[in-house]
């Protein structure tokens, strides 16, 4: 049987995932003179996977916040 995590544990895991995502984004290959397209493609695919993992974690562990966020967005565009 899977042990339920406390909200604090979920938040700490989410923070760790977001820090990893930001770190990965900051590690983007610089599009300078010797820009390597293959290196950029590898980086991009990696960052996309990490971002999807973050969103899936948020959706699974913070469903109420997702609904609140959607309402906030709807109010911005009304």
Order of helices and strands: HHH
Number of helices: 3
Distance between the termini: 45 Å
Q: Low-confidence spans: pLDDT under 50, at least 5 residues?
A: none
Strand tally is: 0
Secondary-structure-based class equals mainly alpha
Arithmetic mean pLDDT: 83
How much helical structure, as a percent, in the residues?
over 70%
Work out the strand percent. Answer: under 5%
Can you walk through the features of this model?
By secondary structure, the protein is mainly α. The protein is 76% helix and 0% strand. The chain is built from three helices and no strands. Helix 1 packs antiparallel against helix 2. The termini are far apart. 0% of the residues are buried.
Question: Outline of this structure?
Answer:
This protein has 78 residues and is mostly helical.
List keywords for this structure.
78 residues, mainly alpha, 3 helices, 76% helix, flat
Annotate the secondary structure layout:
Layout: H1 7-26, H2 37-61, H3 63-76
